[in-house]
Amino acid sequence: MSALDGLPTLRDVIEQHDLVAKKSMGQNFLLDLNLTAKIARQAGDLSQCDVLEIGPGPGGLTRGLLAEGARKVLAVEKDRRVMGALAEIAAHYPNRLEVINADALTLNPLERLTPPVRVVSNLPYNIGTELLVRWLTPKEWPPYWTSLTLMFQKEVAERIVAQPGSKKYGRLAILSQWRATPHIVMELPPEAFSPPPKVHSAVVHFEALAAPRFDADPQVLERIVAAGFNQRRKMLRASLKGVGADIQDRLVAAGIKPTDRAEQVPIEGWCALAREVAKG
Ligand code: SAM
What we know:
By secondary structure, the protein is of the alpha/beta class. It has helices at residues 10-16, 33-42, 60-67, 83-92, 128-136, 154-160, 171-179, 218-230, 236-239, 247-253, 267-278, and strands spanning 29-30, 50-54, 72-77, 97-101, 117-122, 145-153, 180-188, 193-194, 201-208. It has a seven-stranded mixed beta sheet, sandwiched between helices. The relative contact order is 0.11.
């Protein structure tokens, strides 16, 4: 049977290529092409953009992106078994799909992409936050991408958009909201995937800000935020002791009460502290 785009249905593709999902690869596939087209639309107008997709698997989202008019899709997939299925999609959309069989954690995709670049991905859960933090913490800003449209476990998506004072507020919220505008744009139940994961999922769309909201060195910010939230129930003067002997003075200079806890400090405060700590 053929699907909306004239290619075989994803169920047939999976059967023909014997693509039994592997848990070790974080494989939970989307099989509904209406749904993948809807996710692709959350990324905005793709017609003038190159799209970077991590983990295309059998190609459900890839097909959504191409059907929605992406100028080019660069798909990076670690599992060699899906290469045949992806080659069929590439043949159906000449010159618009490039597939690389590589680990997204080690590949630098930049030389194969022409700006503007949007990243759209149903991320493997085991490397999702690691990739997100890398996209958010390059030394220079703005980054090579203009937007990220990413599927996460719902609990991770909620941490990304959390506000100060919330138990979910932490490293992901601060790094995400410091340099971008994350919004949850879709929620998906486990049954949307094959096999269904244990938890609900959500798509988060981020537009990169032209400049970070507040000045700070990304590495210093990441380090102090990680230390502060690692012991989130302690007062900052205790949880940040490892950052430097004079941390109490630095907190005061940044306008933060040393007796506050990490989750009480807004992004502006963390950036002020990063600038104090960077003074050396
Ligand atoms: N995009 C497909 C979809 O929506 O149906 C598959 C999504 S599945 C959640 C994650 C995909 O990422 C799998 O195809 C898996 O093989 C791939 N993957 C896992 N680790 C990877 C890595 N380090 N680099 C690139 N791809 C990876």
